[in-house]
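@channel sequence for tomorrow's demo:
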Amino acid sequence: MKQIRYLAASVVVLWTVASVSAATDIRQLVAKYFDALNRYEVDRSLAFYAPNAVVIQQQKREPLDRDANRGFREFEAAIHSRFAYRIHKIDGDTADVTLAESNDFYKALGSTTHKSRWLYRFHENQIYEIVQVGSSNNEYAQKYLACRAWIVRARPEQAKLVTTAEGNTIFNGRMAGTIMSLAREWESAQKNGSKDN
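structure tokens (generated this afternoon):
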């Protein structure tokens, strides 16, 4: 009986040690991932994603678009993005993270920091699933959509350069300068009470 109790206790201890070790590993992976983002190391940040990584936003599950992701990272470098994060908890293979991003683009829109919450799920030291928790920052979303609509209306030629056929903004390093210039024009127009110039 003593041996059984000893073995049971040993299993609990080993399971606890393994769980703590796994949580520590995931914390370190999250820290390294955001370090790569803050250093604008595109290839290093992309290496954190598993080949079959998926993103779940607004209940839509889609494969992670590496080309678009590379564009986002290049755009973030050009607009001096900084990422701050807080891990709420580690549950198994999942890190529950609140993310706060600030950059020149958000400032131009009058929305200094964009906050969001995500679940990052890891397998073999890579992220295989990213899940958005709740809705994104409503203030930023409203201003971004207003700015995009203004660009299409007031600057149609530039709009053709920075938007897709579906009307989505093309975020990448090559378009960063044009997008920032348009965002600042929009900001000035708002301050001056002008809608079209």
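heads up for whoever presents: Confidence is low (pLDDT under 50) at residues 10-20.
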